[in-house]
């Protein structure tokens, strides 16, 4: 019997069709298993990449444990890089595929980490937002204005901490955010200040001086004790940092060393010229400085200095202080 040529090709056609079908099903299964969204519908959620933990394995584990991805290996393929993700917060949902999530977190976060260090003045904090958020001069000025208006104090009311802040948040709202954190952290100290009959504004003023003057956390109780001694004896404080605050940034930084001429600046912040505390704090103190003012080291010293190693040396009288100057600063 003769076989039509077309009939000879039918088995081959079905074999090829079967192979392609299997390949297609395998691709479909592979795509669904490794890359598809865990859910059909889901609301956007905040996913945070912590500071200092920009590690791909950590990110994959967090996404998997929180239910954003089905497969960690598949997400690694979708991401396609090791160091292309920024720390911060991203809006993603469980209805997004691995490819969509990878694209999102390779972009810019909608919230970024901002570190405010102890001892910064408000202008320095404003400069951080200029750098991190790209603020204009107008937004920077708004930040300074709002800081001056939100409290009885123009300075010292922002708690040094690490913040996660939306990049589109207004300067006014950021001021409120920082001030709210200050109130939360300061509340326990406020109660103790009341017990000791110390005004909260006085506490923050002295703490700001301690923050700028101490060589470190260890020094703070001693510096606080000396400042209390001078205040209670009616002496001028003679603190360089208050003059630095009054002088501002003349091109060498906000806290550049003072000159002889700087000591003649006629300002209520000049504690070489005027007795008592300055009208406002000179910086934003941290917990250690605030605590040191409430629990100062008992001492008879009225003077102090730091040597080149930032080790503190105190003296009970001016003659002994001059000897320390000769011994530790002129040799």
TrEMBL record:
One of its GO terms (cellular component) is plasma membrane. The keyword Lyase applies. It catalyses: a peptidoglycan chain = a peptidoglycan chain with N-acetyl-1,6-anhydromuramyl-[peptide] at the reducing end + a peptidoglycan chain with N-acetylglucosamine at the non-reducing end. GO terms for biological process: cell wall organization; peptidoglycan biosynthetic process. It is a single-pass membrane protein. It is found in: Cell membrane. GO terms for molecular function: lytic endotransglycosylase activity. The keyword Protease does not apply. Its EC number is 4.2.2.29. The record marks 213 as: Important for catalytic activity. The chain crosses the membrane at residues 12-35. Its main location: membrane. InterPro entries: MLTG-like. It comes from the Bacteria. Keywords: Cell membrane, Cell wall biogenesis/degradation, Lyase, Membrane, Transmembrane, Transmembrane helix. Pfam families: YceG. Functions as a peptidoglycan terminase that cleaves nascent peptidoglycan strands endolytically to terminate their elongation. HAMAP family: MltG. NCBIfam families: endolytic transglycosylase MltG. Belongs to the transglycosylase MltG family. This is Endolytic murein transglycosylase. It comes from Candidatus Campbellbacteria bacterium RIFCSPHIGHO2_01_FULL_34_10.
């Amino acid at each position: 019997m003769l076989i039509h040529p077309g009939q000879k090709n039918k088995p081959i056609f079905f074999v090829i069709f079967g192979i392609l079908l299997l390949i297609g099903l395998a691709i479909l299964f592979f795509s669904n298993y490794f890359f598809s969204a865990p859910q059909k519908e889901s609301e956007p959620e905040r996913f945070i990449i912590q500071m200092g933990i920009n590690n791909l394995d950590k990110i994959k584990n967090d996404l998997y444990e929180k239910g954003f991805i089905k497969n960690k290996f598949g997400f690694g393929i979708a991401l396609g890089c090791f160091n292309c993700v920024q720390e911060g917060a991203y809006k993603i949902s469980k209805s997004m595929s691995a490819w969509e999530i990878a694209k999102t977190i390779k972009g810019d976060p909608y919230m970024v980490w901002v570190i405010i260090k102890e001892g910064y003045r408000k202008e320095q904090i404003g400069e951080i937002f200029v750098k991190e958020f790209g603020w204009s001069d107008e937004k920077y000025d708004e930040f300074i204005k709002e800081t001056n208006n939100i409290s009885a104090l123009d300075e010292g009311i922002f708690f040094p901490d690490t913040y996660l802040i939306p990049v589109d948040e207004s300067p006014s709202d950021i001021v409120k955010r920082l001030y709210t954190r200050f109130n939360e952290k300061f509340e326990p100290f406020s109660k103790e200040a009341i017990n000791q009959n110390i005004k909260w504004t006085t506490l923050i003023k002295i703490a700001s001086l301690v923050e700028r003057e101490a060589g470190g956390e260890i020094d703070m109780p001693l510096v606080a004790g000396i400042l209390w001694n001078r205040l209670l004896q009616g002496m001028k404080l003679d603190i360089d940092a208050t003059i630095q605050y009054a002088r501002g940034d003349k091109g060498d930084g906000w806290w550049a060393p003072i000159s002889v001429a700087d000591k003649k600046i006629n300002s209520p912040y000049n504690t070489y010229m005027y007795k008592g505390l300055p009208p406002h704090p000179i910086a934003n103190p941290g917990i250690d400085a605030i605590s040191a003012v409430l629990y100062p080291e008992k001492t008879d010293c009225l003077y102090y200095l730091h040597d080149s190693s930032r080790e503190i040396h105190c003296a009970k009288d001016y003659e002994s202080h001059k000897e320390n100057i000769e011994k530790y600063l002129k040799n």
